[in-house]
Amino acid sequence: MTRRRQPNYESEIRRILIFSGIFFAMIVVAAAALFVLAPFRVDFRAVYDRLEGTLQVSDVYGNELSLVSDIDRPIEVGETVRLKSGGTVRIEIAEGSKAFAYLYGPAEWSVTTAWRDATALNHIQGKGDDYQIVLEQRQGVVVYDLSRADPPLEKLNMVIRFPDGEVRPESVCFQASAAAQGIPSAVVDVPCDAAITPMPQPTLPSLP
Predict the structure, then answer these.
(1) Residue 161: strand pairing partners
(2) Is the C-alpha dihedral spanning 199, 203, 205, 207 positive or negative?
(3) 130-145 and 158-162 as β-strands: parallel, antiparallel, unpaired?
(4) What is the DSSP secondary-structure string of 8-59?
(5) Helix H segments across the chain?
(6) Alpha helices in 73-171 (DSSP H)
(7) Comparing C-alpha atoms, which of 42, 51, 53, 108 is closest to residue 79?
(8) For residue 120, which phi and psi values (nearest 5 degrees)?
(9) DSSP SS3 for 112
(10) Where are any strands of DSSP class E within 71-185?
(11) What's the rounded Cα separation, in Å, for the pair 120 and 128?
């Protein structure tokens, strides 16, 4: 009489566990590679400080907040800031970028687009090869100081939109004046120094 061989359940379970472990390890390695190598987009926030006067901030839903304290406060993409006549404020266009906009009231200004496309490692290091920043200046005079910007101006891919046109800055320090009372918007270079003050609004041809 021949004895029937009993199935080796322990051996089968061991094979399944080994296969599952290898498969899981492959998934982990692939996920880690994607995390390190695959670029993805991160939005920036603007930050205000050095406020004199009252700053009104409104979100995309029309909710408004009045700010009167000279503290760091993030401004999200899509929010609009309005500065009353006689007021001044410094805004870091993208948090940590050292690219600054000095608003002189009355002014209306917003960041409509601000992002960096990079791998996770580059995001951690604060680096990236693909930036996009779009600002809207609907009213008033703004002095821009990009002299210490990181990344530098040539990598920021910055656009400033006015009621009557838009411009891509070519200088690191310049004054932008939005169209008002029949005078077209204008951009003029200014010195880069610590005591930035606006020049009289120049009369220049309309923006292209």
Answers:
(1) 136, 166
(2) positive
(3) parallel
(4) -HHHHHHHHHHHHHHHHHHHHHHHHHHHHHS-EEEE--EEEEEEES-EEEE-
(5) 9-37, 120-124, 153-156
(6) 120-124, 153-156
(7) 108
(8) -60, -40
(9) strand
(10) 73-75, 80-83, 88-92, 100-118, 130-145, 158-162, 165-167, 173-177
(11) 10
Per-residue pLDDT, averaged over 157-166, amounts to: 93
What span, in angstroms and rounded, lies between the C-alpha atoms of 111 and 105? 17
Inter-residue contact 121 to 36 (CB < 8 Å):
yes
Token code pair at residue 10: 């322990």
Question: Which pLDDT score is estimated for 133?
Answer: 93
Contacts 24+ apart (CB under 8 A), 15-21: none
Q: How far is CA 83 from CA 88, 109, 142, 173, 201, in A?
A: 7, 9, 11, 21, 18
Tokens of 105: 């009231």
Which tens digits make up the pLDDT trace of 4-51? Answer: 555 566 777 777 777 677 767 677 665 555 555 566 577 889 998 888
Tokens of 88: 């001044």
Closest to 48 measured CA to CA, from 40, 56, 38: 56
List the structure tokens of 94. 């993208």
Hey, which residues does 188 pair with through a beta bridge?
A: 175
pTM of the model: 0.74
